[in-house]
Amino acid sequence: MRGRPSLCFFMLIFVFIGIAFASAGTASAQSASQSDPVTTASTAAPAAAPDSSKTLPTVAEILQKYETAEGGRDAWTHFSTRYMKGIYQTEDASFFAAIERSDKAPNKTFTKITMPNGVVVREVCDGKSAWIEDARGGIHDFVGAALESHLREARFDSGVILLLAISAGKTVATAQVGAHSTYVVDFAPQKDISSKVYFDTESGFPVRVDDILHRADGDFAVQTFLDDYRPVDGVYFPFRIRHVEKGNVFTVRVTQIKDNPPIDDSIFQKPDAVNSR
Predict the structure, then answer these.
(1) pLDDT by residue (tens digit) across 7-64?
(2) Does residue 2 belong to any structural domain of this protein?
(3) Pairing of strands 81-90, 130-133
(4) Residue 236: which domain range?
(5) How many domains does the chain have?
(6) What is the pTM of this model?
(7) Is residue 231 part of a domain?
């Protein structure tokens, strides 16, 4: 199956896994995360010109605040597996689906999507290949750029990798994102993607991500809004994620997260299928 690589922290629908943020947070971090994601998205202002009377913090200072809020990068070392479930909803509320995802270090993922009519679709990455199993048992392999994207997104340490990428960026402005006052950090996670991350000035958590994929046929923009951060085992996760791109707007509401559950490797094995292609 061919397709464009997903964006936004190298993520689309399920990569809220890679943007989970560890805590030891303060009351201000919790109170800053309560605005509704729909309101946040609809009122998000473009990056404003910085106040010349104030000096913008450096990227290193912003990331230090972020790491303090999250309890340090070492927080990630306590986990090797994770199970998450939630609800996918389109912007017009015309479609819902239940989502379950299991991740196992270093780079295996299993995602199950259950439609309202009971139809089930599974998406799997075993660390070397990735595929979708449709409701009829047909296996459809990801290849090319889509495969590269899935392999990248499946890395359990993607949060740390992201921090390293952002550290090479630059603080370019301040901006209002819904109820959040933010610092805007501009960076390039890879040569064909330009990204901006909006960090809440008080909590330190990212509340918005803008990605632009530069392609031969034109730029493709994606926005993701992160909200309702909650601690799970000393780690903060955004429990509401709103994704906006041309022709595709949806919200994922996370309902459950479990760290270090037992996960059998058999769920990552590709089944035999007559309809494979």
Answers:
(1) 333 333 333 334 333 222 222 223 333 333 333 344 444 445 445 446 899 999 999 8
(2) no
(3) unpaired
(4) 15-256
(5) 1
(6) 0.74
(7) yes
